[in-house]
Amino acid sequence: MNFLYFDPGLGAMIVQAVVAVAAGVLLFSKNVLYKVKSFFGLVKEDDSYDSIDVDEGDTEETNDKNQ
Amino acid sequence: MIKTSKTHEASFRDPSGYMYHDGNTLRRKINPIYFPQYKKLKDSGFFKTLIKNNLLISHEETSVSEDEIIITPEHIPFITNPYEWGFEQYKQAALLTLKIQKFALSKGFILKDASAYNVTFHKGKPIFIDTLSFDFYKEGTPWRAYKQFITHFLGPLVLARYHGNEVFNMMQSYIDGIPVKMISSMLPPKTKLSSVLYPNIHLLAKMESRHSEDYKAETKIAKLSLKAQNNIIESLYNYISKLSLKEASEWGDYYSKTNYNETAFNTKKDLIRNWVSPLNAKKLIDIGGNDGTFARTVQDLVPHIMVTDIDSNAVDANFSQILKNKEDNMLPFVCDVLQPAPGIGFNNTERESLIHRLTEYKPDVTMALALIHHITLSGNVPFEKSAAFFAKFSKNLIIEFPKREDSWVTSLLVRKREFINYFDFYNQIEFEKGYSQFFTLVKKEELAGTKRVMYLFENKNYVS
């Protein structure tokens, strides 16, 4: 913990194991549900929020205008 | 204001480096302790990708020596703090933080802190401003900033869902986030059934109080795989992106409720444009500017515009327009003129007060449209006091004065009931008298079809 300048909270470090399990189950079931839904053609694309993934491609032209 | 080589008041917690004012330029000094991280972040193209995607503020390397590396980040004209954000803004800031953490993990780094103050709004979007927030990821370690993310982001957002946006004001009292125990106690019992809120908030609160007495740091910390950590981040991301305020937005179509017709509305727009044009303003602030309708009439003339409102729904409505139209010169934020954000944190200067920031920002034009009757009649603020407030930071002031006959003013007055006579001073003569103590009258024009008068004032004592 060489750089730590705030208290991370011990409880918070421990609880993450449980949080991760819950999150794993949730994501897995969501994934299954998504597959079932898309099988029946019930998936609506929701693009009001960006995807969590960062675009690493060469998108110079679209992004450079703001710099 | 020239401050030579003065450390930035908010930059002292992290030993990796600090921000300082070099004259009027804000620079960041990096200490040797952080050189390995910085070099890896730079050489691997990590910084470059984040900057290219407008997620992290760009910077230039100014100098490199054995004892220090100096970088100069892109200038941000005005910093807004979490308690000044609307719900959507807060949400976007949270999502940005998670997005960056996920990307960092994929490249062998982590966010070593998840403070909401690492994010601000710039060019119409949230942007991460703490370039030194990254550290190396160590296999199997849980996310140290996890609790901070909960107290700075998830907690306030969920509380806002149940108690309204005003909850964000709690961030003024708790500079390191709302305590988990308090978040947990303020949430309705049914949130204990939520597969996201139970573990992330209620269980966390329990674990925190159970392990609060580990003074010697003896308890073993469980390992957490990278995959598991990614799951936490992704599930928080999914949950927050679907989060909305419980109470349906009160802010509907405000301008359809105004007491004047479309012609008068357009006359007011034209007048503002005609008055602002010759002032060659570089910076403008519209206080009480609702969703930015009037500020947008001069959007092409002024390079940087800020619009504040007490109603966070209006701020949100403005923010969604900015996102939708990709406007990059407008910054909306929540502000109660009768109680502007104070200076908070260590020395009361860690996060500067609104007045302090406005004095440094130095807007060329301040607009206060349909605001003075609220300040004077709802807030009981005498004219010379509100004039003194505007005079602190404004060069030119465009202010709209609704007369006593205006239906809104009449309504505010009759609600004073038997005290109505105490407010006889609310008239143009007294208004001009109060404002002339600090301002010179430049223009004055009655808005046809309304009971309102527009004024253009110039500050008598403005030092540029």
Furnish the topology, listing elements before pairings.
The complex is a heterodimer of chains A (67) and B (464).
Chain A: H1 10-39, H2 60-64
Chain B: E1 3-7, E2 17-23, E3 25-30, H1 35-43, H2 46-52, E4 59-64, E5 69-73, H3 87-106, E6 109-111, E7 119-122, E8 125-128, E9 134-136, H4 146-163, H5 170-173, H6 180-186, H7 197-210, H8 226-241, H9 262-276, E10 283-287, E11 304-309, H10 312-325, E12 330-334, H11 354-361, E13 365-368, H12 372-378, H13 383-391, E14 396-402, H14 407-414, H15 428-436, E15 439-447, E16 452-459
Helix pairs in contact in B: 3-4, 3-8, 4-6, 6-7, 12-14, 13-15
Cα distance spanning the termini of chain B: 9 Å
Order of helices and strands of chain A: HH
Largest interface, C-beta closer than 8 angstroms, per-chain residues: A-B, 39 and 67 residues
Biggest sheet, spatial arrangement of strands of chain B: 12-11-10-13-14-16-15
What percent of residues of chain B adopt helix (DSSP H or I)? Answer: 25-40%
What structural category characterises the helix and strand content of chain A? Answer: mainly alpha
| Integer-rounded radius of gyration of chain B | 24 Å
**In terms of per-residue confidence, which ranges of chain A show pLDDT below 50 for 5 or more consecutive residues?**
59-67
Q: How much of the residues of chain A is beta strand, in percent?
A: under 5%
What's the mean pLDDT score of chain A?
73
How many helical stretches of chain B?
A: 15
Secondary-structure class of chain B? alpha/beta
Count of distinct strands of chain A: 0
- Principal-axis shape of chain A equals flat
Helix content class of chain A = 40-55%
Rg of chain A over CA atoms, rounded to whole Å, is 19 Å
Indicate the multimeric state.
Answer: heterodimer
Low-confidence stretches of chain B: none
**Which geometry of chain B do the CA atoms define?**
globular
Mean pLDDT of chain B: 92
How many beta-strand runs of chain B?
16
